[in-house]
């Protein structure tokens, strides 16, 4: 049984979450909390396997509660939010950077047209996150060696980044360290619940020197700009200058898919693409990296020690597709070296 603590200030929503989660034979709701202060106390007393965490709450919100729990007793946290307002999404993204694993839509009630799908997503996410071992394992910066110098290759024209579970925190770090005059465009696929992409983009734009925006079809690629895949659509390029957005079938269950991104850029830019694959569950992107490597493009994979989930990057490493396997502390530096190294 997966022991779950439900943290939710609304009595109605709290009872709905208990009913949804408790209705699954593999889940046991062992406790509830009405605010962040209560949540911190309940985690210490009950030691749940997973926490579902509301974001906006009295006394202590979900962001502050997440920070305290991850400092005191690291536990898998699934953020459950009904709000797509910029401030609320920013809180959710900051909580993800502080150690929460993922964010899902809050079920609004049985009358909602998507109620059954939202319930399934919630239950499946809680089960999946119960398997994640959350340990704060960020390496000591003082012990880190400089990144390896890039091997000589054709000039890098574009960077393609993909992430899933743990991605917002990793991207916060990487994009925050790249300079505003970064000389090439960056295309990004982040697996995130539908509805959160615009707020996710606003949050990234607020913490990065680069311009971060939702990608739009036909848009011209510009240096120093991060183009993020919109909800439920694949991101690629139509040629070496323009963005392509399509709603073709999911690849390996994912739309947007990292594999689509890597393959599309590889076809247009060949060895002028730098592929970056970060923390995340599953293996989305691996097949795309295979074609990218066949074209001669370099690939950076996040290492296991700094990954929240060593799934996507771990699969790329296992198949020999990474030309560099680096700690999160070194990835931004290596990206700059490769971009300048032609």
Describe the structure.
- It is a single chain.
- The chain is of the alpha/beta class.
- It folds into two domains: 2-129, Response regulator (Rossmann fold), CATH 3.40.50.2300; 142-340, Methylesterase CheB, C-terminal domain (Rossmann fold, 3-Layer(aba) Sandwich).
- The chain contains eleven helices and 14 strands.
- It is elongated, with a radius of gyration of 20 Å.
- It starts with a strand and ends with a helix.
Strand percentage: 15-25%
Q: Estimate the mean pLDDT confidence.
A: 91
What is the topology, as strand order, of the major beta sheet?
8-9-7-6-12-13-14
Relative helix content: 25-40%
How many separate structural domains? 2
Number of helices: 11
Kindly report how far apart the N and C termini lie: 53 Å
Report the strand count: 14
Query: What is the name of the CATH topology of the largest domain?
Result: Rossmann fold
Structural class: alpha/beta
Unreliably modeled segments? 137-152
The CATH architecture term of the largest domain is 3-Layer(aba) Sandwich
CATH superfamily of the largest domain: Methylesterase CheB, C-terminal domain
**H-E order:** EHEHEHEHEHEHEHEEEEHEHEHEH
CATH class of the largest domain, named Alpha Beta
Largest sheet: 7 strands, parallel
Could you say which overall geometry the principal axes of the C-alpha atoms support? Answer: elongated
CA radius of gyration = 20 Å
């Amino acid at each position: 049984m997966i022991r779950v603590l439900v943290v939710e200030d609304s009595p109605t929503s709290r009872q709905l979450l208990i009913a949804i989660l408790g209705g699954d034979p593999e889940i046991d709701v062992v406790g509830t909390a009405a605010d962040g202060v209560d949540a911190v106390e309940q985690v210490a007393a009950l030691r749940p396997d997973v926490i579902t965490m509301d974001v906006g709450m009295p006394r202590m919100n979900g962001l502050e509660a997440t920070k305290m729990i991850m400092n005191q007793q690291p536990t898998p946290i699934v953020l459950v939010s009904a709000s797509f307002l910029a401030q609320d999404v920013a809180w959710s993204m900051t909580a993800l950077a502080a150690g929460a694993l993922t964010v899902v839509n809050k079920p609004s009630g049985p009358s909602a047209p998507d109620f059954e799908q939202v319930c399934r997503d919630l239950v499946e996410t809680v089960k999946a996150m119960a398997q994640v071992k959350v340990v704060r394992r960020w390496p000591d910066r003082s012990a880190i060696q400089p990144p390896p110098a890039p091997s000589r290759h054709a000039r890098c024209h574009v960077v393609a980044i993909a992430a899933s579970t743990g991605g917002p925190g990793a991207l916060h770090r990487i994009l925050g360290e790249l300079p505003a005059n970064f000389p090439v465009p960056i295309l990004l696929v982040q697996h995130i619940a539908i509805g959160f992409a615009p707020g996710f983009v606003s949050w990234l734009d607020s913490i990065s020197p680069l311009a971060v925006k939702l990608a739009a079809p036909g848009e011209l690629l510009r240096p120093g700009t991060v183009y993020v895949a919109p909800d439920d659509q694949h991101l690629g390029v139509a040629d070496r200058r323009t963005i392509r957005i399509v709603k073709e079938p999911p690849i390996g269950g994912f739309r947007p898919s990292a594999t689509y991104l890597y393959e599309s850029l590889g076809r247009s830019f060949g060895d002028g693409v730098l592929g970056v694959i970060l923390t995340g569950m599953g293996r989305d992107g691996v097949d795309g990296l295979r074609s990218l490597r066949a074209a001669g493009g370099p690939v950076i994979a996040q290492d296991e020690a700094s990954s929240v989930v060593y799934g996507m990057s771990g699969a790329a490493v296992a198949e020999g597709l990474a030309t560099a396997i680096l700690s999160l502390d070194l990835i931004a530096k290596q990206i700059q070296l490769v971009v300048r190294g032609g």
